[in-house]
Write a sequence for this structure.
């Protein structure tokens, strides 16, 4: 993968604006959720309901508000600073000297000690393996943004005093002979992506469960109005749930797909145009040349821009083990992962193999 542009402004990095807007939208959603919970609690008390009914709502509203404040302190302030820096500065390379938990020792013209605002162990392992990161900042408050190769989402951080009391984090080595799932970075990223894919059909699942409950209750009590409404909402929710499960079924077993074997590189060509949605994902299609030389079209449900950019820039992708009907694709030893479904029949497959 090519490094980010070191001339011009940092904002020229492709899809950087998508990641920033997605983070801003996520923060707004948390605040709106807290406001909705407070409004619901106030409504419950206004209509004269029992305190036992309103108190749990107020407790949940308080917890949501506390979480929103914590997220603003950790990420929200950084977003405001990063937006200004991206428009005014260029990316600069820095060497990774050491990783001490969430504290990084970086060196360019001087040594910087940076505390990551949010980081999980798989990401820290990926940073520790990297010989080089790219940085924007620090600003007058010490905020910096870091870019890790292959990953388009910038890492938020802040310059802090040196922390020699924090032990150096042991960085695991990537083993190219082991199954893809054995790598701590890959398996950790896979767990996060599996959780995200489940969230996409959770609303349909919740509506389906509530609708079934209302339908059964209405039929039991003889209240036909809610029962009649449920007879419409339940089938719609069921169809949406089944379609989402079918489309994202490969993501649910991503950990098993990574168990298939070591990564092996294949030629790949992404079908254009492909553009991510506001969250950085969109379904895509591509043509792969498998190890046996066969060209096969694949569907890439919930494709992220990290994988898309990897394919665009290298003309290749890596597959875990031997490809079956569904298999994992990505880049070895990194959080760049996706799921591919082979197109078994139809005009698209005939066109590719013609």
């Amino acid at each position: 993968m090519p490094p980010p542009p070191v001339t011009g402004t940092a904002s020229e990095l492709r899809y950087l604006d998508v990641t920033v807007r997605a983070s801003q939208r996520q923060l707004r959603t948390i605040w709106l959720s807290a406001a909705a919970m407070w409004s619901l609690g106030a409504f419950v008390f206004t209509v004269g309901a029992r305190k036992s009914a309103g108190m749990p709502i107020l407790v949940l509203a308080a917890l949501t508000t506390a979480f929103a404040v914590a997220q603003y302190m950790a990420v929200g302030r950084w977003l405001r600073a990063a937006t200004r820096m991206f428009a005014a500065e260029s990316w600069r390379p820095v060497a990774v000297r050491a990783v001490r938990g969430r504290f990084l020792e970086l060196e360019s013209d001087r040594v910087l000690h940076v505390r990551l605002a949010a980081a999980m162990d798989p990401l820290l392992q990926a940073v520790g393996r990297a010989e080089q990161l790219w940085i924007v900042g620090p600003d007058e408050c010490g905020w910096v943004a870091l870019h890790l190769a292959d990953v388009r989402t910038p890492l938020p951080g802040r310059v802090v005093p040196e922390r020699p009391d924090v032990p150096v984090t042991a960085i695991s080595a990537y083993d190219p002979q082991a199954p893809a799932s054995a790598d701590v970075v890959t398996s950790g990223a896979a767990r996060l992506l599996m959780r995200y894919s489940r969230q996409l059909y959770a609303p349909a699942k919740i509506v389906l469960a509530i609708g079934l409950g209302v339908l059964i209750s209405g039929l039991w009590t003889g209240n036909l109005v809610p029962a009649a409404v449920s007879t419409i909402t339940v089938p719609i929710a069921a169809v949406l749930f089944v379609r989402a499960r079918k489309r994202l079924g490969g993501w649910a077993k991503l950990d098993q797909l990574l168990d298939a074997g070591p990564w092996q590189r294949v030629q790949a060509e992404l079908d254009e145009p492909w553009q991510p949605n506001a969250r950085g994902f969109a379904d895509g299609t591509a043509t792969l040349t498998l190890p046996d030389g066969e060209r096969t079209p694949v569907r890439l449900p919930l494709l992220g821009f990290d994988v898309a950019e990897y394919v665009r820039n290298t003309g290749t992708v890596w597959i875990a083990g031997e490809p079956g009907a569904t298999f994992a694709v990505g880049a070895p030893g990194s959080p760049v992962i996706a799921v591919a479904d082979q197109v078994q029949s139809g005009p698209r497959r005939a066109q590719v193999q013609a």
The first helix runs from residue 16 to 46. The mean pLDDT is 82. Residues 3 and 24 are 25 Å apart (CA to CA).
